[in-house]
Amino acid sequence: MSKNFWKKHRGGIIFILFILQITFFYKLIQIYSQNAILLNTTLDNKIPFLSTFVIFYLLFFVLLFLPFILNFKDKKKFLALSATFFFVSIVCNLFYVFFQTTVIRPEIIVSTIFDKLVLFIYSIDKSFNCFPSMHVTFSVLSTLCLLKLNKKAGQIILPLAILIAFSTLLIKQHVILDVIGGLFLAVLGYYFIFRRMI
């Protein structure tokens, strides 16, 4: 790979590596199951199961890619986004390898389409590798980056990011400590990588 090719396309290349981290490598890590730790607290046990919030959980994928779509033509911004999301995804996967956690899922009696959607998510995403929550990490990171690059867009999607964080708890994909970990990691990634590159 020539230096000119790398310089011209590095944003796109790193973006592809990021996608591989959150898809292929994430699924690869899920094959390896060890004695996962349970991080739930008494407060987690009091949080109800609300399958309707699965809609916000799925809207995460819109929020995940929105900063990239809005800044696709700006090479500097796209590179900063790609590099930040890539390195944060590496940290997430390292946690999943060396600090594997799990979550207690409820038994669902299907009565609505939302119940079916939750069961579908359960079927494709195993109940471990939970800390930190990728949904929370990348929702918060997307929001922070957009607030810096496009304040109006960031303000519009902020409520969605909050609802996504709540959805991870309400459909029992994560516990409170997973959410806190995701929030903390997003803030670190934003300030120590993105802000320094933009």
Features:
single chain, about 200 residues, mainly alpha, two-stranded parallel ribbon, 2 strands
What is the strand and helix layout of this fold?
Elements: H1 3-31, E1 37-38, H2 42-46, H3 54-58, H4 60-70, H5 75-98, E2 101-102, H6 113-124, H7 134-149, H8 151-170, H9 176-197
Parallel strand pairs: 1-2
Helix pairs in contact: 1-5, 4-7, 5-7, 5-9, 7-8, 7-9
Written description of the protein model:
By secondary structure, this protein is mostly helical. The chain has one domain. It is built from 9 helices and 2 strands; from the N terminus they run H-E-H-H-H-H-E-H-H-H-H. Strands 1-2 form a two-stranded parallel ribbon. Helix 4 (60-70) runs parallel beside helix 7, helix 5 runs antiparallel to helix 9 and helix 7 runs parallel beside helix 9 (176-197). The longest helix has 29 residues, at 3-31. The two termini are 25 Å apart. The relative contact order is 0.18.
Short structural description:
The chain has 198 residues and is an all-alpha fold. Helix content is 73%, strand content 2%. It is globular, with a radius of gyration of 17 Å.
Shape: globular
Major sheet details = 2 strands, parallel
Question: Regions with pLDDT < 50 over 5+ consecutive residues?
Answer: none
Strand-and-helix sequence, N→C?
HEHHHHEHHHH
How many β strands by DSSP?
2
Total domain modules:
1
- Radius of gyration of CA atoms, rounded to a whole number: 17 Å
Helix proportion of residues, in percent? Answer: over 70%
How is the largest sheet built, in terms of strand order?
1-2
